[in-house]
Specification:
Helix 1 packs across helix 2 and helix 4 runs parallel beside helix 6. The chain is globular. With 265 residues, the protein is an alpha/beta fold. The chain has one domain: Rossmann fold, CATH 3.40.50.720. A six-stranded parallel sheet has the order 3-2-1-4-5-6, sandwiched between helices. The protein has eight helices and six strands, in the order βαβαβαβαβααβαα. Helix 4 links the parallel strand 4 and strand 5. The structure holds NADP nicotinamide-adenine-dinucleotide phosphate.
């Protein structure tokens, strides 16, 4: 699955999602934004996991207006789910509130990321920001929501999916262990390649978690599909900011990057 990015699914191939509930983190921009548009267009009730209410509401209004204009609004139902991935406690709280509010969760897309070339910083718990945002908080979100995802998987006609939007940056590192703060905070140098490797380290953790989760669910015969993917090279705010911060890469903004709808498909 991870290396099948050349197979682009068109919106016509997406199944009807009326009655389904989805969460997409980081949907106020980029690939997450386009993913929410797709899911809402197909009739799902979608929660945008985002840290800033103003940015979330603006993005929700944009998507609703776009779907209405194209005649595809399908009674789009998009809501803000407040969470800051830099703080795993806020993620746990958001997931707990969600479980109290919703009776099902069919699709969880861990999409949001810490998009920067570094230098990376420690958060309030002394953990590296890029590891917290890209792996620890998505881990907390997924594991807290797992009871509801499992429950949904027992319903008739369910097809529950957990998707980690990852990156081929994970191929830049090898690591022996993720156990303990020292290993989680491991950095690979103060250079562009070092920053990409440090980010890739967090993406590797993210992929290993989803693989291990699939193994665990299979062993319990729980019909949930866990996926990790690389979306391609997509023109987003994050990708553009990253390229602009590296002089010799800035020109790449002018060519070669695909649009968010293609990336999200
Ligand atoms: N674009 C590419 O070419 C490319 C390539 C490989 C992999 N990917 C992966 O694709 C995914 C989406 O990337 P993108 O290019 O769409 O990025 P993007 O445009 O920069 O969007 C990132 C999203 O993450 C959110 N986010 C960042 N920190 C957060 C936090 N602490 N709490 C909650 N939300 C937070 C941002 O919200 P704010 O507005 O609040 O910052 C934003 O909505 C990422 O996992 C990335 O690694 C992208």
């Amino acid at each position: 699955m991870f290396f099948s990015w050349w197979k682009v699914i068109t919106e016509d191939e997406l199944v009807d999602l009326h009655g389904k509930v989805a969460i997409v983190t980081g949907g106020n921009t980029g690939i997450g934004h386009a993913t929410i548009e797709f899911l809402a267009q197909k009739g799902a009730r979608v929660y945008m996991g985002s840290r800033n209410q103003g940015r979330a509401q603006k993005a929700i209004e944009e998507i609703e207006a776009k779907l209405q204009k194209s005649g595809n609004d399908n009674q789009a139902s998009i809501h803000w789910l407040q969470l800051d991935l830099l703080d795993p406690r806020s993620v746990k709280e958001a997931a707990t509130k969600f479980i109290a509010k919703e009776k099902r969760l069919d699709i969880l897309v861990n999409n949001a990321c810490h998009y920067s070339v570094g230098p990376y910083k420690l958060n309030q718990d002394g953990l590296l920001d890029v590891m917290v945002v890209n792996h620890i908080s998505p881990f907390v979100l997924t594991e807290t929501l797992l009871s509801l995802l499992r429950q949904t998987a027992t319903l008739e006609d369910s097809d529950v999916r957990i998707v980690n939007v990852s990156s081929t940056a994970h191929t830049q590192v090898t690591t022996e262990s993720f156990i303990g703060k020292e290993n989680l905070n491991k950095q690979f140098g103060d250079s562009l390649s070092g920053y990409i490797a440090t980010c890739g380290h967090s993406k590797l953790a993210n992929i290993l978690h989803i693989k291990q989760l699939q193994t665990r669910l299979n062993a319990q015969s729980t019909p949930i599909t866990c996926l990790a993917l690389h979306p391609g090279t997509v023109m987003t705010k994050g990708a553009s900011g990253f390229l602009n911060s590296v002089p010799f890469l800035a020109r790449c903004n002018d060519f070669g990057l695909c649009c968010c709808r293609k990336g999200s498909s």
